[in-house]
Amino acid sequence: MKTIFKAALVCFMGAICLFSCKEDTRNYAQITGVFKGEAKDREIHLCKVEHGTIHAISTTRLNENGEFGFACPVDEPGLYVVNVLWSSVQRPVKQEHNLKRFYLDKGVNVNILLSDGDYQLIESNCVKNRVLSEWNSIADSMFTYSHGFQYNLLSYEDFFPVLPQFVEQADDFKKLIRTNDASFDELLGLMVDLDLKVAAVNFLFTPQQKHPSKDMYPDFYEQILNEKAADTERLLELANTREFMRSYSMYKVMNAGIDMSNAQQRLEAQLATVENELLKGYFAVDNIQRYKTYDDNYLNYKQLVSPYLSTPYLQEQAEAHEISIRNFTEGTSGFNFKAQDVNGKFHEFADFKGTLVYIDLWATWCGPCKAEIPALQALEKKFHGQPVTFVSLSLDKAKDIEKWREFVKDNNLTGVQLMADDDFDSPVATAYNINRIPRFMLFDKEGVIISADAPRPSDKALEILLVKHLN
Q1: Poorest-confidence range of 76-90, 229-243, 338-352?
Q2: Residue 194: is its pLDDT beyond 80?
Q3: Is the separation of the CB atoms in 373 and 413 below 8 Å?
Q4: Are 179 and 234 in contact (CB under 8 A)?
Q5: What is the pLDDT of residues 445-463, one digit of tens each?
Q6: What gap in Å lies between CA 432 and CA 332, rounded to an integer?
Q7: CATH number for the segment(s) 338-470
């Protein structure tokens, strides 16, 4: 077996040499392995744990011997997950539950023997991965019971008697966590507790042939009802935190006698089960995905959770979903984009309410855009002192921000000069399906769309339109 892994490692190291000439491989972690089983149509995904869930960062196919390898640049040490998928349909070969967890840092090497539903750690130069491997095996045993049909069909008669044993096993395991890295030891302790809760609560929501009465529940269920849950931001470093918040909040609300038919009341109660303010934001973002229509129900929920969308990531996630369910047509409210001026100060579309708003989407590289500048400046002078705001919103690339600033200053551009954050991938460009420029839009004093494809400044029709809506 070692010969096989040495061969896999030699092949893998040869592959990474192609790019290591320019990159210092000391900044990389390496995972090599062999897949045992039918290799055809299998794909191996390396995922990074971020924001309480996993995100695939690299994909590889197995060679004819089932060998695979990854070289992963590591900026900050953390948890990663390896999963096996059918490449043709991009779904797990066997429900993975993100249990092939590894700790990667610069210079860390991991060697594994992989199969559809299991893995064996052959070797690692990082003791943390040996400790993780031990817990992963215990967690996999718990999930065999608690994830029902995804492994086998077991009832509460099978799971409830062994749950106290898993709790005791987890407590014993936590006492042995000593890697000389206090931060990792704390995180692993959180992982142990979370896996236990995920297993217990998930079991209750997994289809079963037999259903227990509450008096049959092991004491552990009462324990997790009475303790604080999701109360530390470090849970965002674990792969199943967001999964747990969804199931636990439902479990707790159901046991609190909340009227489940009252959606607003239920959502408020579920949100209250999450102790940490930042985690409330993640819980809110996950729930907001359930709204498929931009209506009063969505707006009420948005108002409820907006105070918790406190980071750029959370705001972007909520914003992207809103764009996906909105139809920005004439007569609807405009998209409340945010963009910075030449001094780095951010402005929102809502800041301009109370005036007509004419938006020019352009870029410094766009000849037809620049050709409209003289006509735009003439309009700004003509309507000076009237309630009209002329906004020029640049879709230049972020790397060209200094070029844009210089262009604005050198050409004495007036009006409100802003730059979007991600050129054609910016939320404002996505919202209005903008794939070419120049593009012009006009909004009334309440921010409602008059035209999402308004006349150009050089078109006399624009002046007529402005006068019409000012009167």
Answers
A1: 76-90
A2: yes
A3: yes
A4: no
A5: 999 999 999 999 999 999 9
A6: 12
A7: 3.40.30.10
Model confidence pLDDT, tens digit, residues 65-76:
889 999 999 989
Amino acid sitting at position 383:
F
The architecture CATH gives domain 1-125: Sandwich (2.60)
Q: Is the pTM of this model over 0.70?
A: yes
* Average pLDDT score, the chain: 88
C-alpha–C-alpha distance, residues 136 and 139, integer Å: 5
DSSP 147-186: TGGGT----HHHHHHHHHHHHHHHHHHHHT---S-HHHHH
Kindly report, as residue ranges, where domains of CATH 2.60.40.1110 are found in the chain.
1-125
Q: CB burial class (10 A; 0-12, 13-18, 19+) of residue 207?
A: exposed
Instruction: Please name the amino acid found at residue 204.
Output: L
Residue 98's closest CA among 59, 151, 48? 48
| Order of strands across the sheet that contains 67-73 | 67-73, 28-35, 109-114, 119-124
Q: What pLDDT score was predicted for residue 210?
A: 80
* Amino acid found at 125: N
Provide, rounded to the nearest whole percent, the portion of the chain with pLDDT above 90: 66
The residues, any chain, with a CB within 8 Å of residue 85's CB and separated by 6 or more, are: 42, 43, 44, 45, 91, 92, 93
Hey, what are 326's tokens? 């909105």
